[in-house]
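for ur thesis appendix - Glutamate racemase. copy paste whatever u need, i formatted it the way the template wanted (i think)
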Amino acid sequence: MRQASHSPIGVFDSGVGGLTVLKALMSHLPHESTLYLGDTARVPYGTKSGEVVTRYSLKNAEFLLERGIKLLVVACNTASAVALPALSAALPVPVVGVIAPGARAALRRTRGGGVGVIGTPGTIRSGAYQRELEAAAGSEGVKVKARACPLFVPLAEEGWLGGDVPRLVAREYLADFARSGVDTLVLGCTHYPLLKEVIAEAVGPQVSLVDSAEATAEVVGALLEEKQLLAAAGDAPTHHYFVTDVPERFVEVGARFLGRPIHSAEQVDLSF
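the 3d part is after this line
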């Protein structure tokens, strides 16, 4: 399959969280067209087995590939943790996950005090960020402190981004991170950038936050440039959204994650 520079970037996630990755892509690569697939009928992926998540991920990728994408972004931490090897082997286009870019950005940012990782229980339990950090650090080594923060996801989806409740939750999860010597914290869930302000307040100014979405967008830009697949500066980008369940809630909640209105999303059937 031959890709062209004007072909879209494909992005998939189990729901709305991956829209923070899409937002970073739109900001970093404003001339690129995109296709976003939210597998809202089967959300969440974090509670499912690796085999099932891989099967869903391959189906998502097949759907996007049929629509002529030039690169696939796996904007789901769970899928990035368990399905990336299968996707990379099966697809004729480059595949980028969100874990490696975030981990490597954290290693560039840390001042030697250690790296913290927060994410969903499934992502933290997988150990994917921990393994990626340790592998990238090599012989220098790195101290990693990881914690699941499950309540951040419903807070983000319900729009509770400030005020007493999210601050209390953030302090409960994160107050000991700074005390433990962590100087860099990876936001290892695509929902968490919406709560960046309360997270930063909870860990204190001495801890630098790394947004995996922004790091992923930078990696995608560099990869497209390397493969001479960057869209031309004069290209007018288009952005299309697909979901596997009724689109109304995706359109409503997704606008908060994307930072701009989503005027419509097409419901599609990805049944096996």
